[in-house]
Amino acid sequence: MLLLSRLYSPNTRFILPFFITTLMIISYPLLIPMMTAHSALWINLPFALLGIVIILNYTLPQAKSGLIAIIMLIAYGIIINWLQVSLANTDTKLIFCLLATLLPLNLLLLRFIGYPLRYVLASVTLVSLLMLQCAIGAAVSYFYQADFSNWQQIHLFTYHNISSLPLILVVFNLAISCCTGALAIKYHQRIDRHIFICTLLSTTTFIFFHYPFISSSAFTLCALLLLIDIGYCRYQQSFYDPSTQLADHRALEQALTRLHSPYTIAVIDLDNPDKIIEKHTPQAIIDIQRSVANLLTQQPQLLPHCYFASQQIIVIFEHMDCDAALVILTQLQQDIAAAKHIIDPIAVESEHNETAAKPKKGRKKTLKISVSMGISHSHDEHLPMTVLERATDALMTGKQTKKKKNQIYTAVNND
Questions:
Q1: What pTM value is reported for the model?
Q2: 249-346+361-410 domain in CATH 3.30.70.270?
Q3: What sequence ranges are listed for the domain GGDEF (predicted)?
């Protein structure tokens, strides 16, 4: 699992799928006899594996990965059922070009389009939209087959020594793959990794479409990579704090062992928690911590580096100096102070009616709070745990001496 954790480093998220795909293409002539001997199994394997991805994502949050698998499953079904005739056939070539255009677009757009919280509703809506696209594609294929034959000779130049895919669509698919790869490097969301994997392998399918069983091989590899990443995500969930849904102290310990300079560590703590408990209840602290954690989850660049340990939130800024981290933390501090944090009511049993079926609940309350932060930047001679301790010490010392709210305290050694 430590090896799988390397998938979360920015470079590996791009290099590893690309390396595996390149290795598959280089070794493909050696795989053809095996695939031919088990052709029926090889053709049906992507259906089974992508179906497993869809089922597993039903129980996971951020179920867009399941929607990605639905898109890939429908695309593979189109390839198996309608693209097994020679591309010299005009009708087949038109369907091939439409699929090579719409598949990467659908994958990329799924990254930016919101979807309903209910997975089943989102799946039904997506399938309906994909079926509509298939119907439009069939209509275009039926009515404009003759026009397409003339149009492709002028605009869709194909260099058959390289690929059966028109050159303009080769460039288009490679551009989409590079775009999704950049998203996977810049952001740390599971959806970005999965879209990059799918666009990369679908592009490989279209460019090397003249290879036998290439679609089965690429889509099988795609499903396997998705399953590996989902398995690691499930493993990560065991290292999450149940109340805040942030990574806990065990995940923090693992993250600290992998850190390399430069990096900055920030520690976030509530101001005046004793007064909150005195005025409300101890449960109010948990509700506020959960609310602050929800604000952090809305920051994609922060979420993979947020941890909850010792009743404090720790944020790690990899490859970032103290000044750049201060800009982000200042904005975050302002957002936390401006937000209204909901405190759930405590159920209270009625003293006068012991036979009451349900305890009474009070009204939900909203509360504005502030947080203070301690920040420390790494130095070559300091271990990550030392940097964390300096940030914690700066926070605790600042709160005890200045006794001001909504402050950011920088460790003394960060000159």
A1: 0.72
A2: yes
A3: 261-411
